[in-house]
Write a structure and sequence with these properties.
Blueprint (H helix, E strand, L loop, with lengths): L1 E6 L17 E2 L2 E2 H11 L5 E6 L4 H8 L7 E6 L4 H10 L7 E6 L7 H14 L1 E7 L4 E5 L3 E6 L5 E10 H11 L7 H7 L5 E4 L10 H14 L1
Helix pairs in contact: 5-6
């Protein structure tokens, strides 16, 4: 059994939106509806847990009632930090689940095929994530905005979600290492000394953070959704 945790507690302050970030319109749909729709239809996913905030819980719940997301098991309140929200989601994952998929609702355009690939990879290694090779030149910059060095990008990847883990592995990782600031679930599994497989993701699996991202998202939605 596989459980999906969808993080939707973000407020989207950098978007300067009038509604919570998960409900910002992209094309004709709220952002969260895109990824939830794909996850809800995916045959490998048995239940979905949506992590919300106290301030956006009612609004998100009201919007999602319009859609037939039958796999949504629960709405769970998140915490002050991303890792707190994931930890709260893990608490309500079914005892029957062997695998956990974690996804950011701020990435609307996840594809069914990629979900399948990252699940297959995780079942071989215990942990798998999506990512794309870094294209830009990367420099390490020190105090005073002075370049320290240019970083070799050959082995650098920009990591995406969803990320899939053996349940006992991600639960153990969160129990041991989630006290510090965490922006990536796989980094905690890495601290356990476990291997994490990287699966080639998609350049369209963008994360909505700023108003510029919304422009790109609108074009992706217009062409594909």
């Amino acid at each position: 059994m596989l459980s999906a945790i969808v993080l939707a507690a973000g407020q989207g302050r950098r978007l300067n939106a009038l509604v919570p970030k998960p409900l910002v319109k992209i094309g004709n749909l709220p952002a969260i509806v895109y990824s939830l729709g794909v996850l809800n239809r995916h045959p490998d996913i048995d239940e979905i847990i949506v992590v919300v905030s106290a301030s956006n819980q009612q609004a998100i719940s009201n919007v999602l009632k319009k859609y037939s997301f039958k796999k949504i098991k629960a709405f769970v309140l998140g915490g002050a930090r991303r890792q707190d929200s994931v930890a709260n989601g893990l608490k309500v994952v079914s005892v029957k689940s062997d695998w956990v998929l974690i996804h950011d609702s701020a990435r609307p355009f996840i594809e069914r095929e990629l979900i399948g690939k990252v699940i297959v990879a995780a079942k071989k290694t215990g942990a798998a994530i999506l990512g794309v090779p870094v294209k830009a030149t990367i420099k390490s910059v020190k105090a005073g905005s002075l370049v320290d060095k240019t970083v070799d990008r050959v082995n650098l990847w920009e990591i995406q979600t969803p990320q899939v883990f053996k349940k006992e592995l991600i639960v153990e990782a969160y129990k041991k290492y989630s006290r510090g600031d965490v922006t990536d679930d796989a980094s905690l599994v890495e601290k356990l000394g476990k291997k994490v497989q990287v699966v080639l993701g998609s350049d369209e699996n963008i994360k909505i953070t700023t108003s510029v991202d919304l422009l790109f998202a609108g074009e992706i939605a217009r062409r594909h959704w």
